[in-house]
Specification:
about 170 residues, alpha+beta, Immunoglobulin-like, elongated, 9-stranded mixed beta sheet, about 25% helix, 2 domains
C-alpha cells in the first residue's frame, strides 16, 4: 500500500513539474516573439512593405495597395487609380478594377496595367483610369481591385471604400 501511494505522488509530481515547465516555455516564447531578438517589437505588415506611402490602403495580407484615391475620398465621374501590387496579382500585366455602389451595382470598370516587369514576386506599380458608366444609386461605394486569376482557384480582391459626387 505505501508503495502505491509513493508511486501516485511521484507521478503527480512529474505531471505538475511538466505543466509548470510547459507554461514557462510557452510564456517565455510569446515574450520573445513580441519583442524580437533585440528587444524590439515585431514590424507590422504595413511596416514590412518598403517605401509604402503614407495613407495607402493596404490589402490585409499586403499583396496590393492603393495610393490614389485615398480611402473614403470623393471620386469624380472620371478618376485615376494608382498603387502597387505584387507580380502574382497580375495576369498578362493587367487585372480588373470595378467601382460598385452601395446597392451592389457595378457603375464603372477598367483594367489596371502594370508599369514595369510584372513577372516577379515584388511590388509593381499600376495605374488605371476609370470612367463611371452610370450614376451611382448612393453617395458611397467601393473600389474593387481583383486579382487576375483565369483559373479562379486563387481568387482575391481588395475592396476600398470611396464616395461619389452628389
Amino acid at each position: 500500500m505505501p508503495e502505491k501511494k509513493i508511486l501516485t505522488i511521484t507521478v503527480a509530481s512529474i505531471i505538475v513539474l511538466f505543466v509548470i515547465c510547459f507554461a514557462f516555455f510557452v510564456l517565455l516564447g510569446d515574450q520573445n516573439n513580441e519583442e524580437g531578438s533585440a528587444g524590439e517589437k515585431p514590424k507590422t505588415l504595413v511596416e514590412k512593405i518598403p517605401g509604402l506611402p503614407e495613407g495607402a490602403y493596404v490589402h490585409p495580407e499586403g499583396k496590393i495597395f492603393v495610393t490614389s484615391p485615398k480611402k473614403n475620398d470623393i471620386v469624380a465621374n472620371t478618376f485615376t487609380v494608382q498603387g502597387m501590387a505584387r507580380g502574382f496579382w497580375f495576369f498578362e500585366a493587367s487585372f480588373p478594377v470595378s467601382v460598385i455602389d452601395a446597392t451592389g451595382a457595378v457603375v464603372g470598370q477598367g483594367v489596371a496595367k502594370a508599369e514595369g516587369d510584372w513577372m516577379t514576386e515584388n511590388f509593381v506599380p499600376f495605374t488605371v483610369e476609370i470612367s463611371l458608366s452610370q450614376t451611382p444609386a448612393s453617395s458611397v461605394g467601393m473600389l474593387r481591385l481583383s486579382k487576375d486569376d483565369p483559373s479562379g482557384e486563387n481568387a482575391d480582391s481588395l475592396d476600398m471604400p470611396i464616395r461619389f459626387n452628389d
